Task: structure prediction
Amino acid sequence: MDYRRKKKLTFFTIGLIFLLSGVEYAVILPTIWRYLQTLDAAPYFLGLTLSAFSLSGLLSGPLFGHWSDRTRTTKKIILLSNIFEIVGNLMYFMGYSKWLLLSSRLVAGIGAGASSSIFGFLTRITAPDDRATVFAAVMACRQAGLLIGPAFNIFLRLCDFHVGPFVVNKYTAPGLFMCLLWLLLQLAVVFMYWDLAPLEKGKAKNSLDSKSREEENAQGLTEGEEDSDEEEKPLIVSQELVGSYGSVVVSKNHSSAAFNNISNHVSPLSSPATPETHEASSPLKKSSLCREFLREEVVVLLAAQFITLFNQTALETMVTPLTQKYFNFGELENSVMYCLGGVVVIAGFLFVRWLSSHVAERVVLAIGLSICNVSCVWCLVFLANPLGGYAWELTEFIIGVFLQVLGLPFVAVAQVSLFSKVTSEKTQGFSQGVRRSVGGLATILGPLWAGGLTENMYIMMGVMMGLLALLTMMLAFSYNRLVEPAAEEQTDESIQRG
Result:
């Protein structure tokens, strides 16, 4: 099979992975509250169960990411993570007690940690200028799953039969259904997924090496660096001189410039003759990673990841008890609501995919954050203490949910794409794992926060509004730093120093 076909099938399989992650969330969330009630669970147990999934994903994400960085492979990681998904959903189907239900989400969450390896894989095989578009497409697949999931739930709610000693009803059916889907996906990964990173890098390196030599001979080094393929230049020198922040020091003719650049970044870099030294200098490597994650722009993006996910999961946790209390929604109504929300989010991702090719990611991030602020203010004013009749309360609720899901694609795509650009390409799996762990912490605390304050909406929403205000100030002060490091400018600067 030729390389192009392998790449298409691999991307298709990645889309399926994210699609199923969305389907799983969408078929379980509308019914899990009622499921827990049948098992005599207290209201706070809803927050615990939703957070369990994120807790195990928080722990497994960096581990899977580090594994993919060391081995430059992701297929084995995905196959292993799918096993956890299969077992976790099987436990959810069995559902003897609320504790088994809680354990099932813990086990399934381990499988979700593989997304950090996948994002690292995508970062290594895509150019920076195309990254936002690729990430938007991948995230849109998950949102498509969120859209399709409620549609499945409409049929799953009709289940009423036995499989041996186990009862299959509208509460247990989602677990059995997802178990079968993850089994099918396992087969798809075996036969339709390839680790493309080494082959892609090799091809890029060969083509860029020849192009670089031609340009240097014809136009000189400076003009050569302005070539349209500049974003992939790090591949040429990735085994030579690359700073901890992705800065590029080009050519052996500027060795003194390279030395100054190394001193400037305080990074353990290897010489071409001994590439193993980079891995061997573990204390310096750890120091370099710490410095990288403490950079101002990285801190802002991690804060964006945490705060937006904290607010999103808090509102999602609040939604089903709120609709039950004020509108008497059941599983069907909740499923339709999530389905409509999925339509809005997919439309948002498609718009962001187009917008990201016309404006910088930081502009997209600012737009998304503005929408989130408006949404939070609206919910604080109108949902904390709904007023009016049924129709007016329902309208207030719909507007609040619409604004919340509308802002999500802008923030999600922009911060993931920017994060991949402001962190080192060599450790993308681990970096994406850290980013996912920060998000996992948010998705743990968000449901716990909302689950314990469903009767104190002003306190719950007030803290969420305060976090958004803090993030807005951080974005304003660090706006100029939220750009990809300009390799060309850094090279010119290092040459001047030399």
